[in-house]
Amino acid sequence: MRWTEEDIPDLRGRVALVTGANSGIGYETARALAAHGAHVVLACRNAERAADAQTRIAAVAPEASTEILLTDMADLDSVAGSAAQFCAAHERLDLLINNAGLMATPKGRTAQGFETQFGVNHLGHFALTAALLAPLLAAGEGSRVVSVSSTAHRMGKMRFDDLMGEKKYGPWTAYCQSKLANLLFVRELQRRLDAGDHPTIATAAHPGGSRTELGRENPGGMLGHGFRLLRPLIDGVFSQSAAMGALPTLRAAVGTDVVGGDYYGPDGIGEARGHPKKVGMTARARNDADAARLWDVSVELTGASYGPLAEV
Questions:
Q1: What count of other Cβ atoms lies within 10 Å of the Cβ of residue 9?
Q2: Which residues partner with 145 through β-bridges?
Q3: What is the pTM of this model?
Q4: pLDDT tens per residue across span 35-88
Q5: Is position 80 within any domain?
Q6: 143-170: buried (b, 16+ CB within 10 Å) or exposed (e) per residue?
Q7: DSSP state of 119
Q8: Is 292 left (phi over 0), alpha (psi -120 to 50) or beta?
Q9: Is residue 310 in a domain?
């Protein structure tokens, strides 16, 4: 059977935090969770856009319970402050949706000097998960951490000798590496959760080809020019709505048959469109040595503490 929003269970009493919830699949994920009773925290960088998303959710789901948490995933100080603010205001967190991301952007640096895509897509969420796991996520049964990856992980390679693209930077190379990092993070996090007998599980999803704002700011040169020219064709023929693109994330977050380490994507040709199903990942994404190495490097770069899981 095809999994749809109608398969989302009653989420009343549950709390979810969605990063990048003001647009695209982040918005659709937040909307669907709120419509099914969850209290949804919209973790967004821009206050005006977050307020607009909150208004739009209320318009389609009048009973929805939402709040805004200003968070800049490109600044670890902002991430830490937002996590502390959340912990002070809430006694539980059932669903952490690590959704915010950038795609194929020009070379840039985060507030702490990390390559922007690796910093936002991976390191920011690594630090946020650490800050919320021990005090809230691990405290309740059924809690989940969902990381949004991409089919682009298939072209990714961890360049541990040049993670920040200082020797050589390519917008797509950096993006694919960051999406591979998302899956390696889920793998190592789940290994540590299992070893520590924690009730939380870590899962992953990808939206296939979805019509969102992701990638609108792309690099110049022949590749970027070609991408801009083909975008109307891609959007019209090879992609699906953001609401459909959010379904894999939603299934990974609330599906009753989901187990730790599962990865969901569309069931259509090339996983570009369709309803969510469990999908495969590359051998590089299942490399335990790389997963452990990335974890150690991420701890060193962010200073994030995973408490008891740090020693597992």
A1: 11
A2: 96, 202
A3: 0.93
A4: 999 999 999 999 999 999 999 999 999 999 999 999 999 999 999 999 999 999
A5: yes
A6: bbbbbbbbbbbebbebeeeebbbeeebe
A7: I
A8: alpha
A9: no
The residue whose two tokens read 């990808």 is 206
Judge whether 311 lies within some domain. Answer: no
Domain count of the fold of the chain = 1
The rounded distance, in Å, linking the Cα atoms of 223 and 107 is: 15
Judge whether 306 counts as a catalytic residue: no
Average pLDDT, the chain: 93
Of 27, 169, 175, 263, the catalytic one is 175
- Expressed as residue numbers, the domain containing 259 is 11-303
Give the containing element (helix H, strand E) for 263: strand 263-266
pLDDT in tens, 9-35: 999 999 999 999 999 999 999 999 999
| Predicted confidence (pLDDT) per residue in 75-84, tens digit | 999 999 999 9
167 is a domain residue:
yes
CATH number at residue 55: 3.40.50.720
